[in-house]
Prior knowledge:
A: alpha/beta; nine-stranded mixed β-sheet; B: 1074 residues; 39% helix; globular
Amino acid sequence: MSLRHITRRHFFEQASFGMGSLALASLMDGTLSGAQGQSSPAAALAFPPRVKRVIYLFMAGAPSQIDLFDPKPALRKHDGEDIPEEFIKGERFAFIKGTPKLLGSPFQFSRHGQSGAEISELLPNLAKMADDITIVRSMRTTQFNHAPAQIFMNTGHQVIGRPSLGSWLSYGLGSENSDLPAFIVLLSGENNPDGGKSCWGSGFLPTTHQGVEFRSSGEPVLFASNPRGVDAEVRGRSVAAVNDLNRQHSLNVGDPEIQTRIAAYELAYRMQTSVPELTDISTEPAAIHELYGTEPGKASFANNCLLARRLVERGVRFVQLYHRGWDTHGASFGEDIVEKLPRLCRQTDRPVYGLLTDLKQRGLLDDTLVVWGGEFGRTPMNEARNGSKFLGRDHHPRAFTMWLAGGGIKPGVTIGRTDELGYNVVEDPVDVHDLHATMLRLLGVDHEKLTYRFQGRDFRLTDVHGKLVTKLLA
Amino acid sequence: MKRSLAIGGAAALLAASTSGHLLAGSNWASLVPGSRGALLAGSGSVRIVAQANPPAPAQRVDFTRDIQPIFETHCAECHGPKKGRARLRLHAPDVIRKGGESGAVIVPGKSQDSLLIRRILGLDGEDRMPLDADPLPSDALANLRAWIDQGAPGPGGEAMFGVTSGAQAAADTVDEHWAYVKPARPELPPVRTESWVRTPIDRFVLARLEAEKLAPSPEAARGTLLRRLALDLTGLPPAPGELDSFLADTSPDAYERVVDRLLASPHYGERWARPWLDLARYADTNGYEKDNRRAIWKYRDWVIDALNRDLPFDRFTIEQIAGDMLPAATPEQKIASGFHRNAMTNEEGGVDPEEARYEVLVDRVNTTATVWLGTTLACAQCHNHKYDPFSQKDYFRMLAFFANADYDSRTFGDGTRHSEPTLDLATPEQEAARKKQQAEIDRIDLELKTATPSIQAAQEQWEGAMRSAFTGWTRLAPAAVSATGGVVLTVLPDSSVLASGANPKLTSYTLTAATTLEGITAVRLEALPDPSLPKGGPGRDGYGHFRVTGMEVAIAPAGGGRHQGEPVRFETVKVDDSATPFEPAELLANRIGATERPRASWAINAMRDPERMPRHAVLATAAPFGFAGGTRITIRIDHLDGTIGQGIGRFRVSVSNAPNPLDGADIAPRFRRILNVPAGERTPAQTEEIAAAFRATSPLLKPAREALSAARKGLVALDIPSTLVMRERAGFERPSFELRVRGSFAAKAERVYARTPTALHPMREELPVNRLGLARWLVDENNPLVARVAVNRLWEQVFGRGLVETSEDFGTQSAPPSHPELLDWLATEFVAKGWSQKALLREIVLSATYRQSSAVQPQLAERDPYNRLLARGPRVRMEAEMIRDAVLAASGLLSPKMLGPSVFPLQPEGIWNQPFSSDKWITSTGEDLYRRSLYTFWRRTSPYPSFMTFDATSREFCTVRRVRTNTPLQALTLLNDPAAFEAAQALAARMAGLAGEPRARAAFGVKLVLSREAAPAELDRLLATYEQELKHYRSRPEAAVLVAAGRPEDPAELAAWTIVANVLLNLDEAVTKE
């Protein structure tokens, strides 16, 4: 019995295969019976998909849009002056107190590509891809602290407990590779994102849909390697023994759950083989390492970018890379926009360029969606916490920039506009739920129909919100 | 409550569970959420009617046509079949007649005196109805007034008022959701197969099965039953000896005696604490980003102990909600009040302390409602509950009960935080020891700070030595300087070199100079401020920082041609300042290409002091150098970080032949400056700074410093436990809180006062309106929910599913109970038995229902896949902690040690890798490695990974029901987790230790893991594995030694048994309660 070729979609479209449907149902949904009136996720597949998979580059800590994608000459002109009162009346900031002063970007912008997209000098490699990406300068969120904002950006709700984007996709679309999970998370940078594992949690969806964290050092998947002295042969035989005995027992007991466990052991054994092969990037040619700036064996964002390509190549539905460290308050040495922001750009610029270029040269960019962005933006004002002399920007939920690339996206355009100071969005605002609705649409999913009943209510990623950002679509 | 309907709907209910849709009998249909149009579909008599063109008021008003649609459209959300706010419902004539809390709302013939109209108009200073919605359209109001003035006739024109009949009175409660009606003791239903019945439970189950034309399953095998009982009552599988004696015991009460023995076991409390700790969201850390540790394990121990002594559930409740407020509260009762201190606390910088506290209060309300009322009250934080009869005001009134908690405010560098009290649990001996220790610390501290003449003299001498350390350097006059990347270097008269021109991301400076000094012991690089540099330097980035990534010094005899010379080997490097932690010696090791960031670099924070300060690095040679005829020295200084331009702005190089050139080299620049101020001219702060530095380093004071450190360690070593508790603020005011619009912390609205939800049983007059009163109200005999909710959770633990499957929600959106009368019987039985959890569990496990075999018959699998009808025994995958405990027990590793601080069993490296915390998982030693799982340290942002794989929760919030998944990651965990494999090794040693044939050993293994005799076919399969792996490891002795733990005589044999043990521990049956 094998789970190969069985995806969730297959299950709902043609529920005919060897394993008892109940067994599979329980593999996918441990609480099926508690979920009365659950609508089939197949019903949400309402549109022809433009992309099959997503790579989400989550820049945790919130990059400064004003220094990277949204140049504001007025800020430079009025650098050091008080921000006009009307902007900050009644506003709450994470750290700023009193009337803050405007802070012009110390970095130069220029136009790139045919599209003439404006990109900062800090991202020289991404600038070469200006015609392949779509910049959204008009993102907004409601949260201004890292953890809730990251959880909001990932789950559509600021409080822990809702399923994340990737687990919704795993639930709705299943996996195209029976040897790997549908949703994989890769971490780099300074520690984990503030939102913690809730950023890739499955909330009330069954835990099979939660993001599986590939660890950046040590074993990529916990316990995927055999104990010392146990080789693949022994492991293969012992899994066969477990399953033989389970089959014998199931003759007496008849619980379909045993069939599920047999299938799980088979997949586990296949993962033991596929994961080491997959995560061994040393087999890539030198030109690829040069392109990404990868160094096999070293934990880095670059390595994760290359790994992401290898994962989507193998049919993994949703790969999310977290690179943490973008929090540039200027409250202390080394976490300002003068030195830290360039450092973060330097860690990520070439790998991102490498990833886009590599996906493109393999034809994968046509049916892959790449998303780049943080959980909120940064203030046009200098934070100057406790009189700090370092230049930095506080958290800013009212306007920030993200970019997207890949199938179904209209490339080489810049969408949305902020006011002269970059404080508020004044044209084409895109809320977090709008982004989610649009991403789901690109995958062929109607965001209003992908629902799950929990505690008596139908929940969806976009809650009661979400407008399609049509300007983004090709 | 319409039980008959619920039972009648059973067939449909089953059909529904198989198809994934629940559209049962008519009464339950109204529970299926759908569009607004379906809102009243279930009540039968009411239809949604499009708003007709309203008739002129003079026209005869028809109730069904004209009035009912108004109530339906404008009022039903709060005053309809599902909700009766202020006890007023307006969806049917009989309930309209009844009126609400304020009495009748209609005075027939007098619309102006009718409360209905007065409230719609917003008269008498009351809120206008409908609340928070547009006013009623004028034609609708006109119709209502006309209707009342015409005498308020009912449907068909009959009089609605002035008539009461028994039937109507009964009908008043027709729409009350069953869970909000106090359970009545049901009659025991008759059954045909009386012989099967062992306890009243069985009557309810069998009656239902007989109605469904199903037969119960036969009794499970005795071994299976014992294992099921042991797992349910103690969370541990039976020991082989227990199994043997139970199988041998043929006396009629053998089963009951086993039950009583297990209920009396101290492991009972450990097993049942687990689900309760999920409800209590017990964890060992505070949660949120920082997720620092907290000490509240005494609360966990209290739960275990309370369960073991079978503290009645009402007292169990009161002590946890308000133990601190009980008259003459004991320390134990105060510890119990830690229940609500388990809420997460946010310590993130910049968080509004009031908002953080609000989140705690919200969590307390939500948890209380979930645990004792089975109610999703959380919905009402933001708006009136959509389905259940709770308003937003109810929510905040409930919250007010918790708003009077005592707390301290303390301001830290990054903000203010509120903290609630900690109970110190020092024994009198510990208290005395602590006082003594603290006195010792104070004494030594004073000694350290007291300046005696001898100490003062020593300090002066020390200062002198420090000062002289900075003389004796010979400056090198540059003969040539150069730089890459377009930097222009200019030599100044004082032999320093100033950088100008380009400020590239990558640059190396090279300086060549000649010296006649011999016996050179050190080279010193100074970085100096200069007015031409950004902010005055000494570095070149926007702040005046620099970042040096590497240095190299080479020497050659003077006049030795253009040869670069040989690199000098340095032994030690010291710098006087560094902005980030780094090992200065690495400056010499960095030979890294220009594209990658060097792994260490010497960076300074030029802005740390108000004035611009010089910095230096001193490199001490491994052996003195210097050629007799003079030496040419070449120094390269790299700035190859590549992020931004951060070269040194002005620098100077000197050499020294002093014997101890490093003396004083690491004294901070600020300090050097003070040293040069004569003692009499220093400010008090400068004086104190120098004195502190001296005291921290002087050999003279070393004994005192060591004594202080030892005394402080001694204080910590006392290991005095403490725990988080609740405490009420003093005062007599009724607790209150400001309602928050849409639940948003910032949107304050009217102040509301503590009060229990109006839709539930009233609070007794004699109860105080405070947290203690709330606690007593929760376990009031009139509370319709508490006993049902509690027994349902116990049932869920035993049978895998509750009688109400949505054990967290008994509201109108809940799953209907599979056996409503059984639920009520158990609820009333629970109260009748004095709220004894042990008595109730005993009743459950003695039933024939419980004792059934769990084998799934094919026709049953089809008809009742989730065993809702209970035609078989429970077969449920064990929960995360139980799996680990069972594995440890089977292998013989399990430690029986109970209670105490949380422990740190084996977990993979790198799991605790969290922002804002350097906290480390230090693996426990000895038996603490093998303690029962509920003692494992629970870090909310990073719980024990194998528990999470088996669906444990993070304990961030109250969780009633864990999901049960069956995934490949679970397989990997049981196969390969070093902790699991260690158990396999230990189990193998137990098996191999048995004298006898391999077959007997394999059978012993089966008995240890599965608590039963092995079937011959199973033994054949296990022996095949054993033989094959024996062969395998015989030919691979190195691998055999790795697998066979310890020092066995025959590693291959033990390795083969280890693989067999690993297989056994991975069987579905091993992780399943059969």
